[in-house]
Amino acid sequence: MGTRWSRSSSSQSLLPEEQRVTRYTERRDSDNDSLDGLVRREDIAQFPYVEFTGRDSVTCPTCQGTGRIPSEQVNELVALIPYNDQRLQPQRTKLYVVLSVVLCLLASSLVAFFLFPRPVVVVDGGIRSVTVTFDRNNTKVLMNMTSTLNFSNPNFFSVHVQSISSQVLYMKSVIGTELLHNVTTVLPLSACQVNYTVSVEIGSNAPYVYTLCTMSSIKVHNILVLMHTALQSHTASDRCSDSVLYRRDVTEEIDCSDQDAGHNVT
Questions:
Q1: Domain map of the chain by residue range?
Q2: 157: DSSP letter
Q3: Which run of H or E residues covers position 144?
Q4: What does the alpha-carbon distance between residue 187 and residue 108 come to, in Å, rounded to a whole number?
Q5: At a CB cut-off of 8 Å and minimum separation 6, what does 83 contact?
Q6: pLDDT in tens, the chain (266 residues)
Q7: 0.85 exceeded by the pTM?
Q8: Basic and acidic residues: which segments have biased composition (predicted)?
């Protein structure tokens, strides 16, 4: 009975020893795995980054396949991302590009619409009135002819009428001239009217006109004169260059009868 007890006690004492051996073996294997992992990482770190290029790929020109760039070139080099990279969100990029182009075209169209110069409309209102006087000592006919010009500005900017030049001819002879400066400024999308007067003198170059105009035995004392009118203007934004706004030659019939007051032309 004593021997049996001794063996049973011996077998129970062997179990903890086997467990200790097993745990030591497992710990040693784990340490070996950790050492193998460290050694493997150290071995990998000794090799530079290599880009395995295939038939359809090329080596990165920035790092030349090393995977590193010099620190002094960090602020000089630009990272290139493929266009089809999902981080770029190509669909939104295309949308933004299209919207930018559309907005640019719309802005250009609006600028062209508002700033593109349109011709100013000038309508000759004809001779408004004529005042006739006579110089009986020198047999001259003196007249003041008042004419009217109507302006209409379809632009979105002001137009300044720089000058009006008017010349009156009778039978190819100049009988009167007038030159006005800084006439008026036509505001955007507005209209205005300008009256100007030309002084006319008919004397020795056509002495029969005096006889015609002072003859009381006839009822009609009308003569034909040729009026040459020219206008120069510039826009409010371009005051350095002048442009011819209006130029016209028109024949007018005026009454040169002997009257003390002015009268309207028929």
A1: 19-49+59-77, 81-115, 121-255
A2: S
A3: strand 140-153
A4: 24
A5: 90
A6: 444 444 444 444 444 555 555 665 665 555 555 556 555 555 555 555 455 555 555 566 666 666 677 777 777 777 677 767 666 665 677 888 899 999 999 999 999 888 888 888 999 998 999 999 999 898 999 999 999 999 999 988 899 999 999 999 998 899 999 999 999 999 999 999 999 999 999 988 888 899 989 888 888 889 999 999 999 887 655 554 557 678 889 999 999 886 653 443 33
A7: no
A8: 17-31
Beta sheet of 222-235, edge-to-edge order:
173-186, 159-170, 222-235, 243-255
Domain spanning 121-255, CATH class: mainly beta
CA angle 244, 249, 254 (to 5 degrees): 135
Task: List, in sequence order, the alpha helices (H) in the chain.
Answer: 2-45, 90-115, 207-214
Burial 27-42 (b: 16+ CB within 10 A, else e): eeeeeeeeeeeeeeee
The beta-carbon contacts of 121-124 under 8 Å, at least 24 apart in sequence, are: 121/151, 121/152, 121/153, 121/154, 122/149, 122/150, 122/151, 122/152, 122/231, 122/245, 122/246, 123/149, 123/150, 123/152, 124/148, 124/149, 124/150, 124/229, 124/248, 124/250
- Give CA separation, 45 vs 40, 41, 51, 66, 86, in Å: 9, 6, 15, 12, 30
CB-count exposure of residue 265 (10 Å: 0-12, 13-18, 19+): middle
Q: Identify any residues that bridge with 140 across adjacent strands, giving them in sequence order.
A: 135
Angle, vertex CA 88, rays to CA 80 and CA 59, nearest 5: 25
The structure tokens listed for 112 are 């062209």
Q: How far apart are the first and last CA of the chain?
A: 164
